[in-house]
Q: What sequence folds into this?
């Protein structure tokens, strides 16, 4: 077993799996503490922690002077109610997402569920509604429910979250998908946000556009930050001066209110020289399209979006949600099998023209 692994959790998971799969039947003897110490090359306290949690779950019973045994009443089929650490037919994986409103996230959920099922897992979905408090609660509830790992799509503002940091420190199997927290070392799966933005703005510059607007949510998460960096790099590499007055990062409190459209419309009213715009999310693209119609400029501005906003004649950067989901499940499985070596996977994107 890798020395970086959360050892007691891995031992706990492996014994639980043997019980759930029927390899260990009710009343079967569990290896002794010494046997487990020898098998996993770990300390006595590590083994005690693993067995204590299994006993707390009601999966094993410890009889002084005789040993540790699988509990007589452990069910070995069926899915437990959420929040219960009882046995289940397939081991559970938690998927935590901020919303189901975007096409990208809906596709990620669909593909993730499929790949988890193919890997022998059952998915539990939790929606945080962009709340860091709900994110912490979801992590706690899913871990208490006995999930073997987590795939986390962080909240939009990516505030410091002690629950996520604790997962990393404990080396609990989990993967960040799409967004991530830069101060937490773990596995991450992202699209090539910087490259996608760079290619898009390069395309617009090569067409002769110079006054290109950038519109996005507040620059508060890694996806927006990397896309913004890609936008700027396209100008820098061509030694073209950039006017950041044409950047509109919409504050999150406004974006989540009914004031967002007015805010973006006001931005357009103050910048008549803009000839092209790159929006960093599909939501912002839809609001920008409405604002352009309001100001009667939709025919004068070339609009391109990161992600498909579903607007006729609007080109977009297409993410590969299927590959992101496949990679996330693959890396999670590696961790569960005791391999722990944090890495960042960047999935290519492509510009789709309409």
A:
């Amino acid at each position: 077993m890798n020395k970086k692994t959360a050892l007691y959790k891995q031992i706990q998971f492996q014994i639980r799996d043997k019980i759930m799969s029927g390899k260990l039947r009710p009343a079967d003897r569990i290896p002794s503490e010494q046997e487990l110490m020898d098998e996993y090359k770990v300390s006595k306290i590590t083994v005690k922690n693993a067995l204590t949690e299994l006993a707390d779950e009601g999966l094993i019973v410890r009889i002084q002077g005789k040993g540790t045994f699988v509990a007589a009443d452990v069910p070995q089929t069926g899915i437990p109610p959420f929040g219960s650490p009882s046995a289940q037919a397939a081991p559970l994986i938690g998927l935590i997402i901020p919303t189901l409103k975007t096409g990208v996230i809906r596709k990620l959920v669909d593909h993730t569920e499929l790949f988890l099922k193919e890997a022998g897992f059952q998915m539990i979905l939790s929606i945080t509604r962009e709340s860091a408090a709900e994110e912490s609660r979801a992590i706690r509830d899913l871990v208490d429910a006995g999930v073997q790992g987590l795939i986390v799509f962080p909240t939009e503002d990516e505030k410091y979250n002690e629950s996520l940091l604790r997962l990393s420190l404990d080396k609990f199997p989990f993967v960040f998908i799409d967004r991530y927290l830069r101060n937490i070392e773990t596995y991450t799966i992202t699209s090539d946000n910087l490259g996608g933005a760079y290619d898009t703005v390069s395309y617009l510059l090569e067409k002769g556009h110079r006054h290109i607007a950038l519109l996005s949510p507040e620059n508060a998460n890694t996806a927006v930050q990397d896309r913004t960096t890609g936008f700027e790099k396209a100008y820098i590499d061509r030694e073209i001066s950039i006017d950041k007055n044409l950047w509109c990062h919409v504050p999150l409190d406004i974006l989540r209110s009914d004031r967002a459209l007015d805010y973006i419309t006001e931005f357009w009213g103050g910048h008549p020289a803009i000839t092209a715009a790159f929006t960093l999310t599909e939501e912002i693209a839809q609001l920008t399209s409405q604002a352009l119609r309001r100001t009667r400029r939709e025919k004068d501005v070339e609009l391109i979006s990161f992600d498909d906003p579903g607007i006729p004649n609007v080109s977009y950067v297409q993410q590969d949600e299927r590959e992101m989901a496949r990679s996330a499940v693959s890396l999670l499985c590696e961790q569960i099998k005791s391999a722990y070596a944090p890495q960042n996977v960047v999935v290519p994107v492509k510009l789709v023209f309409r």
